[in-house]
Amino acid sequence: MIYVVNLIKNIALAILSVLDFAMLGRAILSWIDPMGEGALASFLYAVTEPIIWPFRKLFEKLNWFVGSPLDMAFLFAMVSIMILQTLLEVLL
Fold first, then answer.
1. Cα–Cα distance for residue pair 59/22, rounded to 1 Å
2. DSSP structural state of residue 1
3. At what angle do helices 72-91 and 39-62 cross, to 10 degrees?
């Protein structure tokens, strides 16, 4: 049973690590290619947008961070991934 839990934990941590790197890549690429017209930008957008979208919709609904120069939805998504990674490592 412990092996199954460890396997699931390791798979979840691997997925979160990939998402973390994809988010970082999207942030760096947004400085290089702000229009996001390349294939890599499209791929990173497709991978990361489902994580960012719920935060963006929530902030729009609550009218938070309107006019902010930073993409707060992106930052909250990034921090959420990091918190999930930490919780998985510590609790399981």
1. 22
2. -
3. 100
Token readout for 11 is 């798979």
Other C-beta atoms closer than 10 Å to the C-beta of 1 total: 5
3-state secondary structure 21-51: HHHHHHHHHHHHCCCCCCHHHHHHHHHHHHH
Quote the CA–CA distance of 92 and 37 in Å, as a whole number. 41
Looking from the CA of 81 toward its CB, the CA atoms found within 13 Å total 22
Closest by CA to 48, choosing from 75, 14, 86, is: 75
**Integer Cα distance of 61 and 9 in angstroms:** 33
pLDDT tens by residue, the chain, 92 residues: 899 999 999 999 999 999 999 999 999 999 998 888 889 999 999 999 999 999 999 999 999 999 899 999 999 999 999 999 999 999 88
